[in-house]
Design goal:
The complex is a heterodimer. Helices cover 31% and strands 29% of the residues of chain A. By secondary structure, chain A is an alpha+beta fold. In chain B, strands 1, 4, 5, 6, 9, 12, 13 and 14 form an eight-stranded mixed beta sheet that branches. Chain B has a two-stranded antiparallel ribbon with strand order 2-3. Chain B has a two-stranded antiparallel ribbon with strand order 7-8. In chain B, helix 3 packs parallel to helix 4 (177-185). The two termini of chain B are 31 Å apart. The chains are: A alpha+beta, B alpha/beta.
Chain lengths: 270, 277
């Protein structure tokens, strides 16, 4: 299996790069990009909730766990195992954070305590691509909770929109995974699973909510949102990703939110 | 309308008007003998606290909002005490970092075994109870116009300013309706200024939250304040409904002897961290 992976991100206006609260994971080490030749490729994307403390850290913990837990995209058990791993590691992360604050002589303020008590929250979506084997075609599986989305485009048409298919479904209150842990039955209620086939020439786009909502709105309007996304980081690009996103924000086409894209091009071998 | 995203690059402002007149020394009709001045000071401190917590991130409180607190009683003017005394409008991060003091209060929280247990929490104080002089509500609303006007000049495209008036409604400088209407006509490109009223009363009638008609309200003061209050924009109505309030397109931002802290949750600053159910 040979794919080309490109990643793009930009914080919401007024935020620094350190305040960015989306997270991505690509490949075995989490930071693969460019041309990749593997039997399987796992990618994950997460979006920390604005109204939660340490949301960026939690999003990074989630993608690391979902990117390395076997079968996290293949079914409910794998998803729950990945989530549980992240939850179990959170207390240690929180301890490190508090120790660092203490070491820097920066104790918690009164306004931080309620948020830390409530825990951090984020959406997550993950997928695994598997190459063709003997009589079995190339397959993919995906799992997600919340409004981070995966789109599959083939021959200038969208063939998959997961887990949201209509831009009207986006809101300020998506389902979220909390670092305190959530009853497994509740997670099962909101968990979305999907799978299918892919062929050389397909492109997958994993996007956090602002970009995903723009993508689906564009599709509904009869446009081809994958065209500018396909051109990013190529000679055909009109601008780099942050400028391109800012232009859409200026035109009120896209929410001003942390914005992330993973693009996976399945390379034709001809 | 009322759809501009509130962010640090596009903040909005909250103006709190707090009645500090002599009549506020009387007890509220419902509850356990609390003075009205204690109720409104407590409500305001909780509103400011909730705003700070809503905007708190690990590097500090983000300035999605700027805040003015205007007291009206013997005088009309800035009412915050402590390090911010005398300031007209203050960034939320300064509000968060500069309460006059932190009190320890007990809050009941689930004990994990189906019961409740008291835990001590820090409760910041920016305003103390005060009850002195008349109730110059019209003057206060006019003062709010000055603050809002200056804000809108600097931020013409912002989410419209929100003015919260905490009072017993017994204005002594004439009918405040015209001043309220003038305030509500001040607009950004995203809509008119919103005026909400918290009415604390010695009347023992049942508490009312976000009504859609004045007929059932218990007094002329309640009806006057209801009439001055802005209709809730659609998205706010949705949040009010989610909190269990019965709403219609005539629902107004008015509560009678009830809690107005929920208004903070009507404003969107990004993805909410609500519990998954």
């Amino acid at each position: 299996m040979q794919v080309h992976v490109s990643t793009f991100w930009t914080p919401k206006r007024g935020s620094t790069q350190q305040e960015f609260e989306d997270a991505i994971w690509v490949g075995p080490d989490g930071s693969s990009d460019g041309e990749i030749q593997l039997e399987t490729l796992t990618v994950a994307i997460a979006d920390g909730a604005s109204e939660s403390m340490l949301a960026g850290r939690w999003a990074r913990s989630l993608v690391a766990s979902f990117g390395t837990t076997p079968d996290a995209s293949a079914g409910t058990d794998g998803f729950l195992a990945a989530y549980q791993t992240a939850v179990m590691g959170w207390d240690q992360q929180l301890s490190f954070y508090l120790a660092d604050r203490a070491a820097r002589g920066s104790p918690l303020h009164w306004y931080e305590e309620p948020g830390l008590g409530r825990g951090a929250s984020a959406t997550v979506a993950t997928m695994q691509l598997r190459g063709a084997e003997q009589d079995i075609g190339a397959r993919w599986t995906a799992s997600g909770l919340g409004d981070s989305c995966i789109f599959q485009v083939r021959d200038e048409a969208i063939v998959l929109s997961f887990p949201i298919a209509d831009a009207s479904e986006f809101s300020y209150q998506p389902p979220l995974l909390c670092s305190r842990g959530i009853d497994q039955e509740v997670v099962r209620t909101h968990l979305c699973l999907c799978g299918g086939e892919w062929v050389a020439g397909d492109t997958f786009y994993l996007a956090t909510d602002a970009l995903a909502a723009w993508f689906l709105t564009s599709v509904a309007d009869g446009r081809r949102p994958w065209e500018p996304l396909r051109d990013l980081d190529t000679v055909d690009a009109d601008s780099d990703f942050p400028d391109w996103v800012n232009e859409r924000r200026d035109n009120h086409e896209m929410s001003d939110d942390d914005t992330t894209l993973i693009r996976i091009d399945a390379i034709r071998e001809d | 309308m009322y759809s501009t995203e509130i962010s640090r690059s596009s903040p909005t402002c909250f103006v709190f008007l707090i009645d500090q007149s002599a009549s506020m020394v009387d007890n509220i009709g419902s509850g356990e003998g609390q003075r009205k001045c204690d109720v409104v000071a407590d409500a305001l401190n909780r509103l400011l606290s909730e705003l700070c917590i809503k905007c708190a991130k690990e590097e500090g409180v983000r300035n999605y909002f700027h805040v003015a607190v205007i007291g009206y009683g013997a005088t009309v003017g800035p009412a915050i005490i402590g390090p911010l005394t005398g300031r007209d409008i203050v960034a939320l991060s300064e509000i968060a970092s500069s309460p006059a003091r932190l009190e320890a209060r007990l809050r009941k929280v689930p004990d994990g075994a189906g019961g409740l247990v008291d835990v001590e929490v820090k409760f910041p104080i920016w305003v103390d109870p005060l009850a002195n002089g008349g109730t110059p509500m019209s003057q206060a609303l006019t003062r709010a116009q000055t603050v809002v006007s200056a804000w809108l000049t600097e931020h013409p495209t912002c989410f419209p300013p929100v003015v919260l008036n905490l009072t017993d409604g017994e204005s002594t400088d004439g009918d405040p309706t015209a001043a309220a209407a003038a305030l509500c006509r001040m607009a950004s490109t995203d809509g008119d200024t919103l005026l909400f009223n918290l009415h604390v009363s010695s009347d023992a009638s049942a508490a009312v939250s976000f009504p859609d008609e004045a007929d059932a309200l218990p007094s002329q003061y309640a009806k006057l304040l209801f009439g001055m209050s802005s209709p809730l924009p659609e998205r706010m109505r949705t949040y009010a409904q989610q909190q269990g309030h019965k709403v219609s397109d005539r629902t107004r931002g008015f509560v009678f002897n009830s809690d107005l802290t929920s208004v903070v949750q009507f404003l969107d600053i990004g993805t909410r961290a609500s519990d998954l159910r």
